[in-house]
Amino acid sequence: MTMDHRDALDHAAGVDPMRPVRALAWLAGGAVLTFVVSLVGTDLLGLHHDLYYLLYFTIVLAYLAAFVARAGLDWRRVVTRNLAWSVGLGVLVGAAVARQILAQPGTARPSGAYLAFEVAWRGVVYGVVDALVLFVFPALVALLLLRGDRRGFARKVAFAAVTLVCSLVVVTTYHLGYSEFRGDRLLQPQIGAVLFNVPAMLTGNPLGSLIAHATAHVTAVLHQYQDGGQGFLPPELTPGYPGKAGGLTGTAVAAGWLVLTAVVMVLGRNRILR
Q: I need a surface site. Which of 102, 162, 184, 193 has the fewest CB within 10 A?
């Protein structure tokens, strides 16, 4: 089977693919959702960053799960296409961004068990979830807009262009929810989006974009925990950030949120997976 033939077989067997208009509606919904969550969680409520991430993760992952259930794409084929090239590019992009972060002045960071938790939570998990929302999701929408067909040079170029445009839409709206990005600093995540989308744009497989972004997050946690002006770990933990509902209060809220999430998932599993 040729590569062009593989690029035309992205739809799951027996499942009708999502129509382009619906795919665009899902993209718009994701852009609005991420803006609202970041705005309310940080700018309006000023939640402790770890608690905010918990709310953000569960809300956007539920949205993406619903999208995946309805898209009608062959996910195994999507994530295995040009896998080695995508992973390789992801490692290269991640290393380049990590080097850029390490070249900047470092900031204070926690130590011990809490640092290990933050590396896993704020580094790996946050980096992966953000990549799913900002880069993987737009690439899948782009694939649906092209009806799963990337055969030929022209369609591959079109896929790359559409992926970048879709990603920039979500990246822009999401970061506008954070007060620190309402100005010239908005250009930073937009430039980052171009870099992090390289694996997806060149290979059609967004897995490398996920690897690159998670690498950047882990590096930022270890070297610029307070953010340091690079914008990789919003909300920026400046002295002026409220950080409400931390400590025991945050733990109680997080536990309640997890229970509520579990109940909603059980009760709504048929609707989500329909």
A: 184
